[in-house]
Each structure stands twice: as C-alpha cells, then as structure tokens.
Amino acid sequence: MQTGRRTVAGPVAAGRGSGARVGAPRLAARLRREIEGEVLFDPFERGRYATDASIYQIEPIGVVRPRSVADVEAALAIAREEGAPVLARGGGTSQAGQTVGEALVIDCSAHLDRILAVDAGGRRARVEPGVVLGRLNARLRRDGLMFPVDISTASRATLGGMAANNSCGSRSIRYGNMVHNTHAIEAILADGNRHRFARVPGNLGAGGGTPGYIDLVRKLRAIAERERDAIAQGFPDVLRKVGGYNLESVDAAGHNMAHLLVGSEGTLGFFTAIEVDLQPVPPLRVLGVCHFPRFRDAMDAVPRLVALGPDAVELVDRTIIELGRGIQMFRETVHEVVQGRPDALLLVEFAGEDRAALLARLEALDDAMSDLGHPGATVRAVDPALQARIWGVREAGLNIVMSMKTEGKPVSFIEDCAVPLEDLGDFTDRLTRVFEKHGTTGTWYAHASVGLLHVRPVLNLKQPQGAAAMRAIAEEAFAMVREYKGSHSGEHGDGIVRSEFHERMFGPSLARAFEEVKDAFDPGGLFNPGKIVRAPRMDDRSLFRFKPGYAAAPLAPALDWSDWPGGFLGAAEMCNNNGACRKADPGVMCPSFRATGRERDLTRGRANTLRLALSGQLGPDALVSDDMVQTMALCVGCKGCRRECPTGVDMARMKVEFLH
C-alpha cells in the first residue's frame, strides 16, 4: 500500500559519523517551522539522548518528539534533504547500542502511543510504535487477552522497539519471539513511500501492491534464493537467534515481509504501526523454585526440566540472590523463598486451566529434582501475589547486578549468546574459565529454557585494560558459540556491540547479503547507520559512555558520598539507563515524568545530566546553569527512586546536594 510520498533529494552517507557535515542550526530551524512536535537541539537535551542501556554514549544531532505520523513524514523528508541520518527511539532501553548514534533522534514514546484497534475475536491488535507493552496488556486484560512476548522491561518497553529488536521474553519457549507474533508492519521508507508489510503470495501479481513494493520484494527474494545454501549453513538451529537480517523468513513460495523488518533495528524503515497477534491469558499459573548447590548442577538439570513442558525455565544465580537480599524492595521475597545459600535457582512455571493438573505438574517437577539428586529442593509458589514478587526479582536481574557499588560493573556484550540445551553446561563452564583467564568473574541469569543465559563479565570500562579484556573475552566467547552452532545475538540484538562480528558468525557471503538488504531498502543510509552492517568496532573507546579522559570535575560536595566509588559522580553513574523510572504501572517513581512525559523530568534524565555536568561534558558552568535548574526543578524529593530504582539511584539526595 502506498499512501503518500514527499519528494526528497540528497543521499546520506552510510556509517557512523555521517551527521558530522550536517548543518544542525538549519536543520533545527526547518524542523521548528515545518512540524508541530517538539524540536530539541540544546546540549542538555542531546546529552540526555546520547545514551541507552548499553555501554555507549554518542551525542545525537538533535531530537524530535513528533505529535503525529505527518510529523514523522515531514521530519524524515527534511532530514534526507539536509543530509542527516535518522534514528527511531522508544523507551531507550537497548543494551547493545541500537538507539544511540550521530543522527536525528525521533522519539516515538511521547505522542505516537495510541492503541489504534483491538480485535478481540480475531485476537489481533494494531498499535503505534510508542505504545508501552504493559499498557497494551492492561487494555487487553478486559478481553481476557495478552500480547505474549513478556519481556522484563514490559513497564517501559515500546512495541516499536520490541519489533525493531525482535524481543523475546521469559515464555518464548511457549509463545515464540516477536517475529512469531507480528502480523504486519506499516513503515515509511527512505524514499518517502509508505507501505504495509505483510504476507505476500508466491505470485506477486496476485497480491497487489505498488510497482516499487513489488520490485523490493523481488530483490529480496532473489537475495534469499541466491543465498539459500549459505542461509541453511549460517543461521544457527537454536530457538533464540536475532542477529543480522531475517533472510530465513523470505521464501519465493510466499512469506510475510513484516518478518524481515522485525529485528532490523530501525535500519530499513520507520515503523508507524505494528499489527500483533494476541493470546488468551492463562487462567492459572504455578511456579516451582528449584534450588541447586552448584551452578553446573542447574545447567545439567535444564534439559530434564524443559522436557516437563513448562512455559518458562529461568535462571537466577548466587550474585543476584545475595544482592537482592540487600535491596529493600526484594529483601522480603528473597528471605521467604530462598532456602539456605544456593549457588543457583531455576524458576519453573506451568500454566493452564485445571488447578489439580497444575499441582500434579509440580509433583512431577519434585520427582524430576529428586531423580537429579536434589530431593526437597523445590519451593512451590501457588499464590499469584507471591509468584508476581518472585518474577519481580528475576525481571530486575540486570538492574540488581548493576547495583554493585564498585568501579567494575557487569558489562553487556556477550550476554546474548544462545547454545543448544545439551551444550549449556559445557559452554558455561568453559566461559567461566575464560573469565578467570582475564582476571574477572561473571553474573548469570535469564532464559535457561532456550539455552540463553545473560552473562556479564565484571569489567571497569573507564580503563583501557577493561576495554582490552572485553575485546578478548568477546573473541573467545563467540568462537565457542560458533563451535556449538549457537547464536551470538539471541535476544538483545546487534547494535554496536555485536554487529561487527557478523562476517565471522554468519560467513562472508551472508554478511554481504545483509548489506544488499540494507541497500535495497535504504540506498542512501538514512536510517540508523552503523548498525547490523558497516559497523564500527565494538571496543572503540571514543564511543563509550566512559571515554578516554573521563574524570570528575573539581567539586567539594556538602554531603557524604563515600559509599560510592567516585563520590557524587559515582552515585550519578549508578544509573545504567534501564528506564525503570519510565514505568506507568503502579508505584511512586517517577511522578514528574508521569506528569510531563519528558526525559528531562525523569530520574534517568536527571542522573545522566548530573553525570555529564559533573564530568565536565556540558561545559564549566553546567552545574550552576539555568538548564540544570530546570532539570532538577520538578523533582519533588519523594524518594520513590531510592526504593523502586533497582540500582538505587537516590535523586532526592542528589537534589539536596545540587541545591546546597
């Protein structure tokens, strides 16, 4: 379907740095004249959009918060004419660096957040890209339905970001990934044309569509057909694989074009609406919390427990358990559920309609644990409220481990590796030895059921040695993944941190094919350059949040910040951009953001602004500037963040320091 086109001219160079030649003042002036949404180009706003939940920090050219799809169309046309690349952004919770870049950021989360239609009978919904998953599911509950891709950041992740990332979730063993639950995507391409990407038949002439759309489908089918053998050999045979472009989905006999866009990380087009398939909410769930004295015991148990047919099998390791004991919002749950000092837990969930049948499945779980040599090591959770609290600990896994008050932090770069279940124990053992070889340890949690464990080595990326260790560990880890015929990018996507490895993981032929896919959609490199194809090195320290020379500016604080390495600046650095403060579900954090919806008025936005100011990145007078006063003005000092932020950012205390 073609619904409109605005003539544009002037190619945009592909790759990072293409925005360097852009005339930002002229771009900003045009945007302010020609769109209704907010246009933000000042250094403080650009700084707040320079980071996501990854290790990277790249200042954008500017930010647009469009009020309508018409605003998006106009902004894309202006960007193309002015030679500025474009980066679509939702909740900004990417862990691989997908949503940072030297580009014009278009923030979909503020106004492109309408639930456009719900067809309860047909079990389908159509939403704008800025709709938050938790809000969609709250609306669907009245019809007994849900969108089943239940990611841990559901309270702030947007459907547009989930589609761009091919998100998965804890229950993917039952419901699949985003690609398995997406019916269609409406998108604007680089030439200004709008299309609805959906199922296309083998006979293209019978399916309708404009000549340009049909030509695009033919190009993609030709690439997929030519690379058929490479696809069969290069794409791993595991449940979790989101790396590269989803050429597996392209078939001359008929395929869904939306499935190629899923996982494309905003590099092929700008999503304006997503149609998703829905599932009924299971009436009942039960949960078994299985305890293991050794981590390897848990890994060896996974195939046996998965054979019981659960909806989820999730790992929680000793690090998360012990850190959780010290976090106020999780302490009671850990005390109630965890017996003794296990090295690992596996959360095993069953769902259905018959309570007796579910209790019988918990009995089978007990029997399996006894057979594995762990009798009496399962704690049952039948009460829904207790189950919700247990899942709350698991879902906060990353943020709990990031609450470490140390210079070294668990770093996301190999956290997305997936291997066959039968190899999981050997893989984790070997990877642990790699960490030891490089003088560090790792934290582990997440999706044991599909062979994907989010493992993060503890590294200090403020030091060149930390970056060197990251590179060395990545090289060894991905070599192992390839040996096991697994996936190096199983859920969190490619972004900056994994895109450069595509040639060695998929082979040179598929790496070139990915470039052809990009060029077929976006020959000028307008959309999110440097992701998936033509990527920079993942260990380029000039792209890091903590760049070479990063240090605190001189400051004599009034309060005692000695509990944080780095003092006041270290306290601000505790924000890892996980975005929990963006949540719209029950709780306190963050009242000013709930009122304004602006990044500036968010705990994350304030912490990032303070970090940038305290490290001298906003100029010598940033801390006493009007912009900083405005940043802190709407913080009401409620201390909701102190309790509800999983990494313990206490913005009320920071505001007291700022005002002193």
Rounded mean pLDDT score? 94
The major beta sheet can be summarized as: 7 strands, antiparallel
Radius of gyration: 24 Å
First and last CA, distance: 59 Å
Name the poorly predicted regions.
1-21
What is the strand content?
A: 5-15%
What top-tier CATH class of the domain at 115-278 fits best?
Answer: Alpha Beta
Binned, the helix content reads: 25-40%
CATH T-level topology of the domain at 115-278:
Uridine Diphospho-n-acetylenolpyruvylglucosamine Reductase, domain 3
What is the number of E strands? 20
How are the strands of the largest sheet arranged?
A: 17-14-16-15-19-20-18
What does this structure look like?
The chain has 660 residues and is of the alpha+beta class. Among the domains are: 18-107, Uridine Diphospho-n-acetylenolpyruvylglucosamine Reductase, domain 2, CATH 3.30.43.10; 115-278, Uridine Diphospho-n-acetylenolpyruvylglucosamine Reductase, domain 3 (2-Layer Sandwich); 567-659, no CATH class. Helices cover 37% and strands 14% of the residues. It contains 25 helices and 20 strands. The strands form five sheets. The protein has a seven-stranded antiparallel beta sheet with strand order 17-14-16-15-19-20-18, with helices on both faces. A five-stranded antiparallel beta sheet has the order 5-6-12-8-9. It has a four-stranded mixed beta sheet with strand order 1-2-4-3, covered by helices on one side. Strand 19 and strand 20 form a beta hairpin. Helix 10 (295-306) packs antiparallel against helix 16 and helix 16 packs antiparallel against helix 17. Mean pLDDT is 94; it is low at 1-21.
